[in-house]
Write a structure and sequence with these properties.
mainly beta; 11 strands; 7-stranded mixed sheet; about 120 residues; about 50% strand; single chain
Length: about 120
């Protein structure tokens, strides 16, 4: 499975961005897909995840109420809509697929994309 993350960029605080994660090579419609982020000098941390049917979603406390994860299995794509962005959301965002248990844990995922940079200016 190859994952292509896109949609990052530079935005002012309070703005919005939508990240996309497109999978090719194999469908991931039967697994969790998650987003993680890594800021300079920090560990990669969980942001959001969604189950294969889209009926269950998971969010880090720091993004709850501001970010929304969704998926389109017909297009093999997962989206992360980010609203009310804050400077502390600045990081490289990675999508991950193939998770079959504990969707908030990095080690649960088999496939990782290359990351897309999100920069929020104050």
């Amino acid at each position: 499975v190859q994952l292509q993350a896109s949609g990052g960029g530079l935005v002012q605080a309070g703005g919005s961005l939508r990240l996309s994660c497109a999978a090719s090579g194999r469908t991931f419609s039967r697994s969790y897909v998650g987003w993680f982020r890594q800021a300079p000098g920090k560990e990669r941390e969980f942001v959001a995840a969604i189950n294969w049917s889209g009926t269950s979603t998971y969010y880090a406390d720091s993004v709850k109420g501001r970010f929304t994860i969704s998926r389109d299995n017909t297009e093999n794509t997962v989206f992360l809509h980010m609203d009310t962005l804050k400077p502390e959301d600045t990081a490289v965002y990675y999508c991950a697929a193939g998770g079959t248990y504990m969707p908030t844990i990095r080690g649960s995922y088999e496939y990782w994309g290359q990351g897309t940079q999100v920069t929020v200016s104050s």
